[in-house]
Amino acid sequence: MIKNDEYFMSLAIKQAEIALKKDEVPIGAIIVKDNKIISKGYNVRESKNDALGHAEIVAIKKACKKLNSWRLCGCKIYVTIEPCLMCAGAIVQSRIDEVIFGSYDTKGGAFGSNIDITKISNLNHYPKVTNGVLKEKCQSIIKNYFKQKREVKKCQNH
Predict the structure, then answer these.
(1) What are phi and psi of 125, to 5 degrees?
(2) Are 47 and 24 spatial neighbours (Cβ–Cβ below 8 Å)?
(3) pTM for the full predicted model
(4) Which of 56, 82, 98, 151 is catalytic?
(5) Active-site residue 82, yes or no?
(6) CA 61, 39, 93 angle in degrees (round to 5)?
(7) What does each C-alpha distance from 27 to 74, 91, 137 come to in angstroms?
(8) Are 30 and 12 in contact (CB under 8 A)?
(9) How far is it, in rounded angstroms, from Cα 129 to Cα 104?
């Protein structure tokens, strides 16, 4: 099997599907080093009552523990949805080399759609950014989740 961006993004999507089954916002992340997965994460904000429980933060914490370092040099992070400002900051601070995401987040994304952290001057690190990998699948899982949530809420209000 060829381990390319689509392969790793499909594994991030599997993490998003785990979140979906737990009624979390379905976002998944995978961190890869030397073409090997070193950590996985999905949103746990609701189940853990943790504002920092984003998929990227979960994956970064696990990767730091696995590598026994806060520096994740040589790593790539695959995320189903464009990281928010908090996660973008964690990516920069952990020195992840590359961010690959599926779909833009026009409300909270920090790598080009809402703001672009890579355009802020004088940061100590700038990751390479690639977007649109398995975009339709990444978009559909989150759109369907929120559509279903709105339908349930609408039924409860009647």
Answers:
(1) -160, 140
(2) yes
(3) 0.94
(4) 56
(5) no
(6) 40
(7) 23, 16, 12
(8) yes
(9) 12
